[in-house]
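Here is the promised in-class demo. Please do not try to memorize the tokens; focus on the logic of going from shape to residues.
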């Protein structure tokens, strides 16, 4: 089963309708499932007028069938209920759905993601290890936020299969009207070296189709989408072969960074400057592509120097990230379609790819950690030793 996600940065883009149309086009030749992962605002039943129950037993959730597609939607499991879930509960539910749904033998699973980059977005990308890629649905007016979504896909190592520009224009007699501004998706796709899958106009007759439970958009865009999906090869995840090499490189990198930091900074002076007195220990954890610890070291100040400490559980702060985020933050950029996009430790933090924990972690991160990692000499030394890791 190959997984395709449909994503948008905001609600109201028509993403759910496009998810259904993609699934329908795929279902002409393949066995297809559709998961409505927008738990708070499930839209499948409204668009299709299918309010069938989804059978649930002690251990198994059975999808309903609609137009030859197997479907699971929260709206069919909890019909007519008000839904407002915490992030933790949403994560737990998505894990349960992944483990309990009995899809059977599928060729493709289309996941209609909630708008934005919520906990569900992150959970889906972490629990499904067979994601082929993501489709991004945009309006012409959503350009700035779409760029951020493209970045997030890269940071989670998920290819962008292409951009779909919905409600791009309206045909009014002989005139073409652009309600959300002139289309910008093609230019954006060129900038990042990704597929531009086309424009879908406003279609006034869609309301009548929805009332009949057949929300089919009249466009050839979905043929192109399916062509891209079916011609995209699953990536060769050769992480096991590379693990020892990458681990060795990171160990060398940490050793050299410690030498540079201790030469460049007055560590005691830095502690006094920001009020972090004493030999505060903090753990640095870097996860590999398999989710296991690639590097797990505890650092602390000793005799005015930052050193590695062995055999200690006395840790005040923890800094944790994954290998691809670490490499991009260390190099100062990541590549999308051959384009170098600026990226640093601060953006790793604000996008949730680098997690810092411990009492007073925010002041610690914004002062000591940032000052060290933004120092020109430290950055230069880091980049010298990080070049071999860029191919990841």
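The designed amino acids, position by position:
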């Amino acid at each position: 089963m190959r997984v395709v996600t449909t994503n948008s940065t905001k609600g109201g883009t028509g993403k759910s309708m496009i998810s259904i149309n993609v699934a329908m086009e795929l279902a002409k030749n393949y066995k297809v499932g559709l998961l409505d992962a927008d738990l708070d605002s499930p839209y499948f039943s409204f668009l299709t007028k299918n309010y069938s129950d989804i059978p649930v037993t002690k251990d198994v959730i059975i999808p309903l069938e609609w137009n030859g597609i197997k479907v699971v939607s929260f709206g069919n499991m909890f019909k007519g209920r008000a839904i407002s879930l915490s992030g933790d509960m949403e994560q737990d539910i998505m894990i349960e759905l992944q483990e309990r749904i009995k899809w059977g033998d599928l060729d493709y699973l289309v996941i209609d993601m909630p708008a934005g980059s919520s906990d569900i977005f992150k959970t889906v990308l972490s629990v499904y290890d067979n994601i082929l890629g993501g489709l991004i649905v945009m309006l012409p007016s959503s350009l700035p936020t779409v760029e951020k979504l493209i970045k997030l896909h890269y940071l989670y190592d998920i290819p962008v299969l292409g951009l779909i520009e919905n409600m791009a224009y309206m045909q009014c007699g002989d005139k073409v009207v652009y309600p959300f501004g002139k289309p910008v998706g093609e230019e954006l796709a060129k900038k990042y070296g990704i597929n531009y899958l086309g424009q879908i106009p406003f279609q006034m007759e869609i309301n009548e189709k929805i009332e009949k439970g057949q929300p089919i958009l009249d466009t050839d865009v979905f043929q192109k989408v399916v062509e891209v999906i079916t011609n995209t090869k699953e990536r060769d995840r050769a992480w096991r072969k590379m693990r020892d090499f990458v681990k060795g490189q990171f160990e060398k990198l940490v050793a050299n960074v410690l030498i540079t930091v201790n030469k460049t900074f007055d560590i005691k002076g830095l502690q006094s400057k920001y009020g972090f007195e004493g030999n505060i220990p903090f753990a640095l954890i870097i996860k590999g592509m398999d989710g296991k610890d690639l590097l797990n070291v505890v650092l602390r100040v000793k005799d005015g120097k930052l050193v590695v400490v062995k055999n200690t559980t006395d840790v005040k702060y923890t800094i944790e990230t994954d290998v691809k985020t670490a490499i991009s933050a260390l190099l100062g950029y990541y590549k999308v379609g051959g384009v170098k996009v600026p990226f640093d430790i601060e953006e790793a933090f604000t996008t949730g790819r680098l997690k810092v924990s411990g009492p007073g972690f925010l002041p610690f991160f914004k002062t000591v950690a940032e000052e060290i990692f933004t120092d020109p000499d430290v950055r230069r030394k880091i980049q010298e030793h990080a070049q071999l890791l860029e191919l990841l």
